[in-house]
Batch of 2 targets.
Target 1
Amino acid sequence: MSLKLKNGDKVLVRTGNPTGHCRTPAYLRGKTGVVHRKLGKFKNPEQLAYGKSGKPKLILYQVRFEQTAVWPNYGGAPRDTLLVDIFEHWLEAAT
Amino acid sequence: MSHTQTHGHGHPHDPIEDNPDVRPEHLLLEQAMRELLIEKGVFSAADITRQIEDMDAITPAQGSTFVAKYWTDPEFRKAAQKDGKAAAESMGIDMSVAPELVILENTPEVHHVVVCTLCSCYPRAVLGLPPAWYKSVEYRSRCVNDPRGVLKEFGLDLPEDVDIRVADSTADMRYLVVPLQPEGSAGMPEEQLAELVTRDSMIGVSQAKPVG
């Protein structure tokens, strides 16, 4: 969890299917995007939802994905993008 | 839901409607929880009514004023880009229990549209309650993978050289779209500009109203 990312870094969203209050949409798991901006540190919603402290706080990143990388049959324009907030423990560095 | 339709991209789906069904089991669950919490003294029925009244009192007009100020006041714009929540607070909007607010400014090159695929996160402190369609499964699922198709259904047909950027509010951020300032509106007073800024244009499914 000491992964430090900066704007423009390529990231891979982890796969996995945990039960519970997870804020990483399933459609992005296993997809590659780019750090758009760092949003700050927030309590972990996966714990907060169950009455826990949510600490330590986690870094929340806004990650930008190319639509064509997320949906193989994307029918829009090639430069269309998605912006999604993803907590650090769901991300790993990609090349 | 009424009928299922097939169109351009070859798969059928329900149209986006303003009146998504509420499942009876969810209504029952809400009622049971509400009655138990009142019985245990966690809150009273009057507390619920007051909360609903407070929520109903917030209208998209606050957001319209915010956007008009953003268009006209460079200092405010700078502040809002840095910290949307603080900027909203500075104009008297109660953000005390609100999450962070991120401003997505549309440009001639990039158009933003906001969705919450996981639930129905919405900048309530600024815009009030979300429209029913915002919470519908159709909008939430289709907005992320066919935004151009969805926008067309709202009457917004953007050319291919405008990049569409969908913001999926999944966590601690709420998003407010600042639509493009309509042509011919430069120099208009803030109050008149605010009248051009519709709720839907701040979600990103339409543009601000044209002048005149």
Target 2
Amino acid sequence: MVEVSRKPKGFVTINQERCKGCGFCVEFCPTNVLQLSQEYNSHGYHYPIAQAPEKCSGCDQCGAYCPDFAVLGSRNNNKK
Amino acid sequence: MTESCVAEPTNSVIEESPTESIPATEEAACTHLEDFLRMDRIPHIWCPGCGIGTSVNSFLRAVIDSKIPQNKLCIVSGIGCTGRVAGYINVDSFHTTHGRAIPFATGLKLANPELMVVVYSGDGDLTAIGGNHLVHAARRNIDIKVICVNNFIYSMTGGQAAPTTPAGTIASTTPYGYFENQLNLPQFLEACGAVYIARWTTFHVRQIQKAVCECFKKKGFTFIEVIAPCPTLYGRRNEYRTGLDEMKMFKEKSKIKNNIDTREATLIPGQEIVVGKFVDRERPNFLDSMDEHYGRVLGDAYKPYTGAIA
């Protein structure tokens, strides 16, 4: 049995220190990759973490919504 | 810079954990917009949940998409929360006096017609204090691109009611609700003569990006109204506790109606927010019609205007 790989299409990069915890990226991610962490950054905000990174499609919707330029979604250049 | 963060999987079959190669978080700088931002001023002063940052994000993506050279782009802002935009974008940007962003931009454009002049300001600055300038810049069809971030109130001065405040809204100066008639900006600007008018909310990030790209291609006075949440001074008093609540309301209540009569483009938060591209028409702009007129009247004695800077 050859298992077909399910390599994620994309990944999300988060700059925790720049985040203000508004939650836009978490709410508007189409595949629910992100959630706000329980931890605080040094300014006292809950930053997002990728709780299901395997679902990420790399659409960069999180990055388009981020008011603080702290999140970026990118595509993996998978070869089909 | 992002590539270096990722250990690229070597084979296409991953046996157990497909997530190992994916970094969850990175401390490193991580957006391609940083070339266009003054990074020494980031993080900006806007509140958590404010929509102005999202609108700037969409605007910068549009600037990158439309490949405008950084030295040909100018941003002019007035006073207010949105007036801070000029301070954060790393192009030639001007922070002008209250309401006078448009006259400043007019002078800039007429002195050097090669520049792409963008006025990025708020509703209080553009339509209330600088309302008269807005009327006449649209009437003359001066080639400037206006982006008006409308958060329904004067946010920087403490949440007072503005001309764009919807009726029934509670603001700091109207604790029993606002009763005056609200200014419908697309209708107002269409009457004045703008050639491109669109309204989007900060929920519609890709549409804002596309609209800004379209504006850069148009010649003449273009106007984009961006409805933005203000959790600190508007939302908190009006049932939207966080910026996210207001964004969810935008998502739920906004209806895209392109090319409709701007008189029907209503904006009632909580009931109906009509968004879309309302006007896209052609009119001779100020410099073209000036050249055409004087060329006709004065004949060969008139040389077409090429700007005050040789």
